[in-house]
Amino acid sequence: MRKFDPIVVGARLIEARSALGLRQVDICNRIGVSTSAWNRFETGARLIKPEAAQAFAEAYGFDLNFIYTGSERGLDDEMRRALADQRRQNSA
Are 79 and 19 in contact (CB under 8 A)? Predict the structure, then answer.
């Protein structure tokens, strides 16, 4: 079984949330996880559970490959643009 670094995965969750212009509470309310759990996922204190990752992916148009590996192959063009815009903003 492949091991994923919770800090790296958490950074992707933050990047995805920021690209969508959402707050943690927005995601939590939509996918049914507590804000404390989501915060632990984003900070890398805990690896996001597969059920929560799947709910996030389905709710917001991400795929599990992006969440766990960073691969953007399964993302639609709009989501790729949103991530690219977010990265430009972060580097400015």
Answer: yes
Copy the structure tokens of residue 50. 């597969």
SS (H, E, C) 13-76: HHHHHHHHCCCHHHHHHHHCCCHHHHHHHHHCCCCCCHHHHHHHHHHHCCCHHHHHHCCCCCCC
* CATH architecture assigned to 6-86: Orthogonal Bundle (1.10)
pLDDT over 80 at 2, yes or no: no
- d(CA 30, CA 22) in angstroms, rounded, equals 11
- Residues 36-62: what's their mean pLDDT? 95
Buried b / exposed e over 36-52, threshold 16 CB at 10 Å, is eebebbbebeebbeeeb
Q: How many alpha carbons fall within 13 Å on the CB side of residue 40? A: 10
